[in-house]
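Bumping my old thread because nobody answered last time. Still need a sequence for this structure:
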């Protein structure tokens, strides 16, 4: 990007643009080369201006949240990384309805539609819902990342997932159009939002804009009024279970592989005797086999090589090809 274009891009946002920015500092894996630029957009107007500029100049771009489910290439990203700022982190309760999602006899009651920005962390949203006495999102306690990322990944745990509490998603196109998509029109699967994924490049692919055509800016969740103390206790229980079962010291991207139907990726990896196996600085966690961790100085190449080694061993032993849950950039 020449000096004139850099100056133009910088003029579109209120936060300083970070040029040649190492992405290892923006992922939980602590791995990744530099992006040409990292741009924080603070509100819808800034996002619209930046997207229009990037599309007009045919500059590659990709939006990331907290980078908790992302492996960035060692060579980095030859484009602009966008991060949603504080203007996309607001939470509000829109209205109350009667029995909107009667999932179990334990949580039937008056419900509330919660509107939340895509950049809000799941942790903050779970705490907010707990304080409001809203049940339905307890399964997300302890899951890292942003609300937007959780919807895109259809994050879940303990038999529940984001699609089950989602009411609508608000998105913006590169052309700047803002639209709200109702849940009934959206297609979700296990750890995937198919509508979004179909517009995103896969592993090894590159598309003109370097990412999806849609940017998630906000979501609406349908929750139910419940007992605050019960909600708080359940959230604490889930967090404690995660703390005991997952590695704490090493950097990782969380669960690396999707669980195959009727089985668990961690069990299959452990059954193949792969706990503690290393490639360079990447290691299969001795604590939880479905965590590939950065034990120190790992490169993206190390992680990918270890991923392939795990896939080959598990497929040989069980006939199952594990599919990565982590996104690649």
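Sorry it took so long. Here it is:
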């Amino acid at each position: 990007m020449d000096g004139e274009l850099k100056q133009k891009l910088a003029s579109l946002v209120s936060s300083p643009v970070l040029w040649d920015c190492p992405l290892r500092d923006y992922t939980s894996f602590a791995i990744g080369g530099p992006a040409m630029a990292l741009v924080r957009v603070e509100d819808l107007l800034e996002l619209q201006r930046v997207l229009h500029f990037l599309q007009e100049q045919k500059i590659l771009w990709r939006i990331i949240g907290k980078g908790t489910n992302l492996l960035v290439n060692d060579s980095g990203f030859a484009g602009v990384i966008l991060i949603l700022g504080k203007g996309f982190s607001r939470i509000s309760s829109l209205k109350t309805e009667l029995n909107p999602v009667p999932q179990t006899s334990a949580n039937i009651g008056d419900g509330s539609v919660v509107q939340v920005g895509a950049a809000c962390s799941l942790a903050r949203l779970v705490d907010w819902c707990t304080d409001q006495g809203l049940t339905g999102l307890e399964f997300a306690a302890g899951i890292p990342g942003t609300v937007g990322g959780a919807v895109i990944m259809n994050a879940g745990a303990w038999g529940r997932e984001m699609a089950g509490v989602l009411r609508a998603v608000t998105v913006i196109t590169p052309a700047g159009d803002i639209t709200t998509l109702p849940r009934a029109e959206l297609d979700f699967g296990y750890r995937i939002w198919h509508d979004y994924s179909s517009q995103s490049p896969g592993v090894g692919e590159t598309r003109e804009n370097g990412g999806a055509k849609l940017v998630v800016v906000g979501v609406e969740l349908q929750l139910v009024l419940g007992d605050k103390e019960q909600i708080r206790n359940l959230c604490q229980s889930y967090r404690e279970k995660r703390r005991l079962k997952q590695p704490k010291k090493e950097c990782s991207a969380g669960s690396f592989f999707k669980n195959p139907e009727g089985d668990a990726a961690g069990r299959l990896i452990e059954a193949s005797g792969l706990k503690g196996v290393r490639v360079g600085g990447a290691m299969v966690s001795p604590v939880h086999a479905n965590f590939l961790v950065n034990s120190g100085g790992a490169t993206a190449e190390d992680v990918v090589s270890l991923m392939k080694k795990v896939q080959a061993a598990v497929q040989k032993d069980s006939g199952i090809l594990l599919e990565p849950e982590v996104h690649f950039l």
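The domain at 3-87 is CATH 3.30.43.10 (Uridine Diphospho-n-acetylenolpyruvylglucosamine Reductase; domain 2). Let me know if any region looks off to you.
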